[in-house]
Amino acid sequence: MATKLIADSGATKCSWYLMEKKKNTKVATTGLNPYFLKPESILDVLSQYLLPALNNKKVDEIYFYGAGLSTIENKKIMRKILSKTFPDATIEINSDLIAAARATCGHSKGVVSILGTGSGCAYFNGKKIIQEQNGIGYVLGDEGSGAYLGRKVLQYYLYKTFDEDLMNAFEKKYNTSRAEILNNTYQKPFPSQYLAGFSIFLSENRGHYMVENIIEDGLNDFIVTHLYKFREAWTMPLHFIGGIAFAFKDVLKELCNTYELELGNIQKQPIEALASYHQ
């Protein structure tokens, strides 16, 4: 049996799954998005964290799925990096939407969405993606994502829209300031991950009408802005991948019922399903 290394990289975290004849090994590193990290930084992560965790084992096949890999140029960059690290391996590079499609649909047709740090969706015909709504990033879009919802949390706090209970809960949890928030958002690296971190506040305060409104409005924005672009969304199951989708699956279910859409699979992470797909 060939030794296979499968990777699913989001903006925040990259999950690795090494499949060997007698055992499987799971490893987690920081996200490896070529839009955010320079090639030398990605190489450093692989050499300092991944290879030691894999005990420098020889890998025959690599299937790398990741955010930021919808362009040919970024795919070439990632292939070159992986070829340097694993010179004897055959390498397949795909976008995170392909990962989501293979993990949720397998070889069946469906509309698949990613709701994690960022967001995106596509129609998968069982073999390949036919149509997709590419994310345009946390500044211009990413409706329904962690960054989108986290940004709303910060807006409600900084504008003092939250009531007294939520203002106190926010200040107790984060102990931050307006200056620190603005500095992290506009001056420091990885602002999308920073914003997405505040979506946890929503999970921890479920039941409050302001929190429920933020969640429902954010996910509704995703459905109306993106899923409505697919005629298949009305006739095929809608599958979701990502921490936001998993955390607020009850809201997704309610929205799909309201719009008379068929809700399919909801998975927090695709790595296990991808391992089964490539087995």
Automatic annotation (TrEMBL):
GO molecular function: kinase activity
Annotated organism of origin: Arachidicoccus soli
Protein name in UniProt: N-acetylglucosamine kinase
CDD domains: ASKHA_NBD_PG1100-like
SUPFAM superfamilies in alphabetical order: Actin-like ATPase domain
Listed PANTHER family: N-ACETYL-D-GLUCOSAMINE KINASE
InterPro entries according to UniProt: ATPase_NBD, Euk-type_GlcNAc_Kinase
Keywords: Kinase, Transferase
